[in-house]
Write a structure and sequence with these properties.
Blueprint lengths: L6 E6 L2 E6 L8 E4 L2 E4 L12 E5 L2 E5 L7 E2 L5 E4 L3 E4 L10 E2 L3 E2 L1 H9 L12 E2 L10 E2 L3 E2 L22 E6 L3 E6 L8 E10 L4 H4 L8 E4 L5 E5 L7 E2 L5 E6 L4 E6 L10 E2 L14
Length: 286
Amino acid sequence: MEKIIFYEIKETLEGKGLFAVCDVPAGQKITQYSGSIVAYEEIPAHWINHCMWMETDRWMIIESDGRYINHSCSPNCEVVEGNYAVTTRDVKKGEQFTIIYNRLRPQDYYDYEKNPEAYQWDPRWTFECHCGSPECQGVINKYKVIGNVGPVNFVPETDTTYDSLNKTCIVQNSVTGRSVIAKCDIQKDEMFLKCPVLVFPEDQWPLIEQTALFHYCFAWGEDGKLTGLIIGTGSFFNHSYTPNAIYKKNYPGHYMEFFAYTDIKKNQEIFINYNCDPDDLSPVWF
């Protein structure tokens, strides 16, 4: 299959940028960041503004077209697993693709407090921002906690329905793996899914911990000593600190109900906060 190119490189006032050559839907991979992985002190001076932090003292010198994605305080893309730049909203033909250079996600903030030296800001990265956004920071000179841009729309590739309400489906996508997608519009506060929960006694947790089920299980019961496993679609919701859905546990009935926290559109991915409380920014386990 021929690879589709969604962008062209054009000159801007700041240098070069990536611009959409067609209308691009939200959730679309635009390009992948790739290049040499080196220690920070090994980055050549002329590449210092084209590098990406990968892990402790390991940086990528961006040699792919991703280095031309410019900054905006109201970006239309974000970098996801696999180092792909993915659109976070629909992008019109001729619009420039942008990311936010100094974004520190809420889940990163807690790591930052514990280990701030891991989030070093090189003074050579500092610049005046003229993006024109109402959220423009003026000067980009430090990391900043910025919440998730919100749920991303995905076009379902498969349709495997598990719930009787028939309002959601599980899909495979190239960004996060499995996702739960709305099959129709869902109104705020509407219950759209109910799933049974398989409950394991306390003494079986050490065994579960050694299996792949560990990633899908959670504490269950009023005292949290039991282990629960959702049967069906509910096991495949992805986490977000700005969820569009919430869930309620029914311990006596051994089931969970899922409700729309905001209005959810057809083909939009549904997120929950794994901390249960949609406003809880506590770090999760991954």
